[in-house]
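Annotated sample (chain length 166).
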Amino acid sequence: SLNSYEPELVDFLRDDAYNQQNKKISVTYLWFLRKTHELVAYITVSPDCVQLKKISPQLANKFRGKGIDYKSLPSLKIGRLCVDDKFLRRGIGTLLIQFTINLAINLSNKVGCRFIYLDAKRNQEKSKDVIHFYKKFGFEIYKERGRRETPLYLNILPFIEELTDK
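Output written by the structure step:
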């Protein structure tokens, strides 16, 4: 079974993920080791929207200057991301983020999706504070909220442009 220094992530998978998926609220993707079939990680995603003015008035103005005059834009929300403690710092979290970026790009072509959004759970212990993990992928702070969670967003357009330039 999955073990995490964040017990609520294990609780969510055990108690809520299946019901939320059945109710079409979110979808949880599971990652297993190929040889042992051991569960090593999961990620839960759902549709959402990003309020542009809450990110920054400058960003809202930049979009307005490009003819995108909306208060919010569609996004894919990462509701939960968990890697088993035994498998931390082995690149599995990176695979989950890459998977989510690809999922968001596919959504952008089918129904529209501009951002990936999440609430990063903060941890007093620096080695367990995930905000630096997300920032290395280009996630930016959406709004400083407090000590427990920091909302982050990632504009996926540069990834789409990189794919179309090749």
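Annotation: The first helix runs from residue 7 to 15.
Annotation: Residues 7-165 form a domain with the Aminopeptidase fold (CATH 3.40.630.30).
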